[in-house]
Amino acid sequence: MKIFATRVIPPDGLELLQRAGLTVTQWTEKRGLSAAELIAHCQQYDALLLASDNHIDRAFLEQCRHLKIIALLSVGYDKVDVAAANDLRIPVTNTPGVLSAATADTAFLLMLSVARKAFFHYKRILRGDWNFSEPTANLGIDLEGKTLGIWGLGNIGHVMAKRCVSAFGMKVIYHNRGRNEAAEKELGAVRVSFEALLAQSDVLSVHTALTPETTGMFNKAVFSQMKPSAIFINTARGAIHNEGDLIAALQQGVIWGAGLDVTNPEPMQPDNPLLDMPTVAVLPHIGSATVETRNAMSVMAAKNILAAFNGTPLPNQVTSL
Ligand code: DGY
Exposed e or buried b for every residue in 86-121, given b needs 16+ CB within 10 A? Predict the structure, then answer.
């Protein structure tokens, strides 16, 4: 059985596959595969381990319907046409849970960096502008006792809320379709309407999946309902916010700051105006990028592949086969 991996895979998962006698070929070039190249490669393999942002659309699936499994090295599966995979009976799996803490830590890092203008002050040092300190210049804001609003309180949002409660005694409100009773019990989180979430949050952190309903959800009309002192954090998917509207909201003081681990498009270009704003912190989609977490994700993906080859139930299937 032969597996094609679209990137070099963290060692723990790779070893698991190799110890089971499977052959893993990794794409080692420092450039992404085109759609045509991905199809051409996959046609020679039995399984795909997808660790890149290639889109798994119907055209790909129709030409690679022999694949026994497409194992994603991510929790998000918005890049996959799940309906087409279901139609063609190609199982797709993801890596939920194991990256919740690392991703929540990235949201927390962004929140604190924005609140204290950390990226801006770091850039001052780089340009030799650390010579005259003024007690009133370039001040940040405290987070102690402020209100954290979570849009999409699942695993990642829960860890983010936990961090914020224990570090800063923040009050937690959230908006979900259903209730998160565990977070209500553990953290005193209160479920509110979307309008109340916008109006009351001092920090609004997005942890929802990208779906047709959430695409472009944070736009001019939504930003205008937030506090002028609010910080917007997105570690979920860049397409959930409208970038032009976010830039305008920051420039016009409609909201105070933003922390982004995800942008639209990715990669963000170096001349993007967001990168020059003192109350903005941007990271290049590193939510799950720790040694421990990436290894855990690779083990999970490997276990899904092994299950597919052994004909046992797939632990983390997103398709409904
Ligand atoms: C995920 O796992 O979905 C991360 O955002 C990486 O894409």
Answer: bebebbbbbbbebbbbbbbbbbbbbbbbbbbbebbe
Q: Are residues 300 and 161 both part of a single domain?
A: no
Pocket lining: 74 vs ligand 1, CB cutoff 6 Å? yes
50 and 175 fall within a common domain = no
Tell me the pTM.
0.97
- Atom of ligand 1 at shortest range from CA of 95: 2
Instruction: List active site positions.
Output: 237, 266, 285
115: Cα within 13 Å, side-chain hemisphere: 18
Do residues 179 and 277 both lie within one domain?
Answer: yes
Q: Two tokens at 31? A: 């450039």
Query: Structural domain of residue 181, as residue ranges?
Result: 100-282
Into how many domains does the chain fold? 2
Pair (173, 272) in one structural domain: yes
- What is the whole-number distance in angstroms between the Cα of residue 133 and the centre of ligand 1? 40
Q: What is the pLDDT along the chain (321 residues), one digit of tens a residue?
A: 899 999 999 999 999 999 999 999 999 999 999 999 999 999 999 999 999 999 999 999 999 999 999 999 999 999 999 999 999 999 999 999 999 999 999 999 999 999 999 999 999 999 999 998 899 999 999 999 999 999 999 999 999 999 999 999 999 999 999 999 999 999 999 999 999 999 999 999 999 999 999 999 999 999 999 999 999 999 999 999 999 999 999 999 999 999 999 999 999 999 999 999 999 999 999 999 999 999 999 999 999 999 999 999 999 999 998
Of 224, 230, 219, 238, the C-alpha closest to 287 is 238
Question: Is 321 inside any structural domain?
Answer: no
